[in-house]
Amino acid sequence: MYSLLCAVLLNLFSQIQDLLKYLFSLGALYLGIQFFKKHDEKWMRITFVILTIILYFIAAVVYAFYRYLQYGDVPAPS
To answer: Minimal CA–CA distance to 29: which of 15, 11, 10, 45?
Structure first.
C-alpha cells in the first residue's frame, strides 16, 4: 500500500509543472520515512523501494496512454 501511494505521488510530482508538485514529493518522502520507521527488516525496505519504482513506471505509462487517447498527444518530458 505504501509503495502504491508513493508511486502515485511521484507520478503526480513528475506530471505537474507548478509549485504544487513539491507537495507531492514531500508526501512521498513522508510516506517513505513512515514505512522505514515501521519496518526494520532490510528485505522489506529493498522491496518497498523496488516496488515503488516499478509502480511509478507503470503509472507513468498508463498516464501517457490515457493522455494519448484523450488528447492525441503524449506529454513532453520535463
So the answer is: 10
Q: Global pTM?
A: 0.83
Reported as a single tens digit per residue, the pLDDT across 7-26 is 999 999 998 889 999 999 99
For Cα atoms 24, 7, 47, give the angle at the middle one, nearest 5 degrees.
130
C-beta atoms surrounding 25 within 10 Å: 14
Other CB atoms within a 10 A radius of the CB of residue 42 amount to 8
Q: Report the first-to-last Cα separation within the chain, whole angstroms.
A: 27
Q: Which three cell numbers stand for residue 78?
A: 520535463
Half-sphere exposure of 6 (CA within 13 A, CB side): 20
Mean pLDDT of 64-71: 86
